[in-house]
Structure prediction request, 206 residues.
Amino acid sequence: MAKYFDVHPENPQRRTISGVADSIRSGALIAYPTDSCFALGCQLGNREGLARIRQIRELDDKHHFTLVCQNFAQLGQFVHVDNDVFRAIKASTPGAYTFILKATSEVPRQLLHPKKKTVGVRIPDHVVTQALLEELGEPLLSSTLLLPGEDEPMTQGWEIKERLDHVVDAVVDSGDCGTRPTTVIDFSTGEAEIVRRGAGDTDRFE
Prediction:
């Protein structure tokens, strides 16, 4: 049965956030809110958590997982970013964007696209997510909480708790989330390619 963490959306309770972080460090797979929609997340090196996300979402090995980072200093440890790409990403973050970039050696091999050696990264504009990332001190390995055969993610924590009680270890609820996942921009070739149009405005990347 999944733990349920009720978090204040504007002033996250430190003790509660610490409890979530402790669960993640202990190997938990969580459902948590972001500035786009709910996501599944676990610790970066959690192989079992990764396998469980694949199973829940029925993902193949070509799916781009996302490292949800607190800031640019953290993001820069895991992907290669040249000056032009840096400026483009900097102008769009924090926000509802995922950027696909060449990974550094810090990224576990099982997270990489098998041919491109790329990974998704993002910096969310969400108070609760940022509080959790600060407490955790490392990125969250994440994927949108979109179940197979469904067109939109679930928007309410209690609904996620009800439906996924036996497949996730914890649900973090800070109120309703949106239904549009992030906009995905592939910068792995140095040029912006819009892979998915979502919550983030694509005008600057057209």
In short: The beta strands are 3-6, 30-32, 39-43, 66-68, 97-102, 118-122, 140-144, 170-173, 183-186, 193-196.
